Amino acid sequence: MVLRLSTLFLRTLREDPADADVASHRLLVRAGYIRRAAPGIYSWLPLGLRVLGKVETIIREEMAAIGAQEVHFPALLPREPYEATNRWTEYGDNLFRLQDRKGADYLLAPTHEEMFTLLVKDLYSSYKDLPVSLFQIQNKYRDEARPRAGLLRGREFIMKDSYSFDIDDEGLEASYQAHRGAYLRIFERLGLDIVVVSAVSGAMGGSKSEEFLHPTPVGEDTYVRSAGGYAANVEAVTTVAPESVDYADAPAAEVVDTPDTPTIETLVADVNARFPRAEGEWTAADTLKNVVLAVTLPTGERQVVVVGVPGDRTVDLKRIEANIGAHLEMGGEVEVDAAGDEDLAKHPGLVKGYIGPGLSLSEAVLGTESATGLLYLVDPRVVEGTRWITGANVTGKHVIGLVAGRDFTWDGVIESVEVREGDPAPDGSGPLEAARGIEMGHIFQLGRKYAEALGLKVLDRNGKLATVTMGSYGVGVTRAVAALAESNHDDKGIVWPRSVAPADVHVVATGKGADVFEAAERLSADLEAAGLEVIYDDRPKVSPGVKFGDAELIGVPTILVVGRGLADGVVEVKDRATGAAENVPVDEAVDYVLRAARQ
Ligand code: ATP
Ligand code: MG
């Protein structure tokens, strides 16, 4: 059916919505695709649903092509399965929790690993049933701390999530690669540039994980790449650690008085003035900065942790957040902040400005054992035998020549400082440069974590019960609509790629004459009969300026104007993307538009 603007449920807006700070948000609202219902929650209008439907169709086709089968789960789910995997707690404040009239706990699902696992457990019992991949396209709910940029980060959003079930690791690898391929084809068909980066899996647990980032300055993810082809989320970049150093001949560490040197700069200046060394000036890189952090666990408890990093580097809380899970007793999403005075007050062993590598500055160094009893982690650059100037855990005192592994130890190594442009890529493919992107998709090898927690076992070839291994794979469907609008717009409006445009052609009738409207009407019908999707601006009393403005705002790839030229037997066909316009004889117009649409 031709979509007539005289009756289409649409009001375009001249003004930008006040809360919109990125172009896709502004334009999707102004062009009548979506309306805000609540912060981070949107209603879809007819045009928006058409675009959304096209994105979903591409995703469905590519999922079907790898043999994944579509199912559909409720969004409203009982607590128990999420309790079994501990995600009821681990999801923290991001989870929408609610109760039914009997007081039973429910949640609005942020993702569905548990339910898929239980469904397969319900129905399958043998390795012969595997592999299987299931998916759905469904609403997800996350009470994001900062819903932003319209559909880019919503609190209700649509995700395509799939899950693979295999009997062994090779099977999982094959399912993972199949999804990886499908994702590349999905984004290719959508016309979204993608960089695949290796990622840390965060709350999901599991091992291998990659993200599909769309490079854009409005993205919230920083990633790095090298000329040699390495790409990774900064949270996943691993540091090229130096070799450990022989310290057999290292002199004993020396505790020195360094009054009024609470910062790295004051300290470096002071030791250069008073304790110069033969090998050249001391620099910030010779100091070990011990940073006190407060980790907020999913339960809400705060745990104080100390991280030792070279003094010339800046601590990166996000990298620590992503990697600290391995060092904590509890899994799940944690928040890491700089510790406040009240955290410090609880640990008198921490002397502000002079904090040492707290765990075990040996007695030999200080004359007294100084242990704070806190978890102490170090940056990978702190390897055995490296020598440091650092705090002595005593006001006004530092230690010079403190040898890692001899004079102090640590509980673990953690990626904890900012990745800098120019740092080497871990695979030796050259220096790193930074870029911004938005996460469009994410694939994980979950392994057996969920199957174990929920008891998904099948009989293997030998008739023994074996735990199934799983993968989980997500695409942000509503986010894809926003990303497409974001990367395809100009100052007049959206410029949809053909693959997802709400129509192929937007026919505009301008002028007052009945002949213009009759011709436009006929052309619209013919275009539709030729298999094209048509929007027809048949509004009788709207000025040409307003009609052109709306056509450009809405962003259909081809605009066909029936107006003054009709007297000479021509209509104007405009390419929305390039702005190129051509006069085409009326009876050739359908073929002309068909050719443009099939390019
Ligand atoms: P992000 O890091 O952006 O918060 P995530 O890593 O939490 O995303 P996943 O759990 O991996 O997201 O979800 C799979 C996909 O769902 C993401 O790759 C993204 O495209 C989409 N998605 C996640 N959160 C949102 C959201 N709040 N709004 C819209 N889409 C989202
Ligand atoms: Mg993700």
UniProtKB/TrEMBL annotation:
Its EC number is 6.1.1.15. It comes from the Bacteria. GO terms for biological process: prolyl-tRNA aminoacylation. GO terms for molecular function: aminoacyl-tRNA deacylase activity; ATP binding; proline-tRNA ligase activity. It catalyses: tRNA(Pro) + L-proline + ATP = L-prolyl-tRNA(Pro) + AMP + diphosphate. It is found in: Cytoplasm. CDD domains: ProRS_anticodon_short (cd00861), ProRS_core_prok (cd00779). One of its GO terms (cellular component) is cytosol. Keywords: Aminoacyl-tRNA synthetase, ATP-binding, Cytoplasm, Ligase, Nucleotide-binding, Protein biosynthesis. Consists of three domains: the N-terminal catalytic domain, the editing domain and the C-terminal anticodon-binding domain. Homodimer. Belongs to the class-II aminoacyl-tRNA synthetase family. ProS type 1 subfamily. HAMAP family: Pro_tRNA_synth_type1. Catalyzes the attachment of proline to tRNA(Pro) in a two-step reaction: proline is first activated by ATP to form Pro-AMP and then transferred to the acceptor end of tRNA(Pro). As ProRS can inadvertently accommodate and process non-cognate amino acids such as alanine and cysteine, to avoid such errors it has two additional distinct editing activities against alanine. One activity is designated as 'pretransfer' editing and involves the tRNA(Pro)-independent hydrolysis of activated Ala-AMP. This is Proline--tRNA ligase. It comes from Arthrobacter saudimassiliensis.
